[in-house]
Specification:
GO terms for molecular function: methyltransferase activity. InterPro entries: MeTrfase_14, SAM-dependent_MTases_sf. One of its GO terms (biological process) is methylation. The structure is a single chain. With 413 residues, this protein is α/β, with parallel strands linked by helices. It folds into two domains: 317 residues, 3-Layer(aba) Sandwich (Rossmann fold); 95 residues, Rossmann fold (3-Layer(aba) Sandwich). It is 28% helix and 21% strand. It has ten helices and 17 strands. It has an eight-stranded mixed β-sheet, sandwiched between helices. Helix 2 crosses helix 3 and helix 5 packs across helix 7.
Amino acid sequence: MTVITEKLEAGSQSALLENPGNTKSVCPNCESAKMEPFYEVKGIPVHSVLLMPTRDHAANYPKGDLKLGFCPCCGFVSNMVFDPKVHEYSTSCEESQGFSPTFSSFARKLARRWVEDYDLHGKTVLEIGCGKGEFLAMMVEEGAGEGIGMDPAFVPERLDTPVSSHLAFIQDLYDERYTHLSADAICCRHTLEHISPTSSFMRMVRKTIGDRPDTVLLFELPDVYRVLKEAAFWDIYYEHCSYFTTGSLARLFRKHGFDPLELELEYDDQYIVIAGRPNSGKPSPKLAGEDDLESVRLEMRRFAERFRIQKESWLGRLNELRADGKRTVLWGGGSKAVSFLTTLGLTEQIDFVVDINPHKHGKFVPGTGHAVKSPEALRTEKPDCVVLMNPIYLKEVGAQLSGMGLSPDIIPV
């Protein structure tokens, strides 16, 4: 395994940090000037996956405001007051979901399918925003020839794979300094939602591909249509400055000369999976899910009232449990937990947070300062209720609790 820690000298401002024209009403996706605000939360942590060493550090971590805007031209949703300069992406970030068997199984199947469907056997994959490198390693294990991963949060000692000699990692953000990198596939999973100038980013990706028309793009990211429809406010947080539907993502691809090859919802319809290639100059037929602009607009207009109802319902339920002397913990110490706790302003209603990722144990949730503990702590703490931050893990978590002889009420969000 090769790890490059020495960063190239920045020739100009990184596209990850740009805010084109500093005009908040300009859509970063289609670049029209018609963004409409519809949801606002003030004073939330600017990071939700950084490890907080003490309760005080967590409670006093820098905060920022979030104001979601909707673009009527392309259906894109973004934080209109986002400030990328507050972020500190580094090896202290703990974004990995790989400790969950449910998530790992999904990721493995996706890696295998992409290698098979796009004939990546023996070929090179560049992953932008590779995190701890697990997925890139899976793609090589499933048949890809070489993998190049880019992420300032990559930690070499965390990756144990028999294909390490076929992997290289650059501990840096992707920007114009790295458009010389050559690959047969460019993979970008759960990264584009962290990038504000999405159109500028796609221009760089197109520059990276150059005159190689067979290069395939493989992207995966959260679907905001579900978030709007369910008023899933726990899926809205500062680090996610960009929110896509299937349609707005496909429109971004087409705007920059890529034909979508697949456009699907996966992982219980939580994630959008899209693949594309440089177009041949001829218009390609639209895929199911591209014409969603009116339906997204409708859900956006309903969101504020749905959120009000959700907030009142959760606060009422959790306050009642507290008043009845019930011990309630929250399972899942990632970004969803941070948003859930801070948006609702929860303190004593939640005793602590549980997470299966051992790198989070003994740390604290930014914003509220709740402690993060191992599931094993529940053997002695014995909660009455477990608020589960993602329903897709209901079977997995239920089995783990049952295996410890525990039977609390599980309340999925």
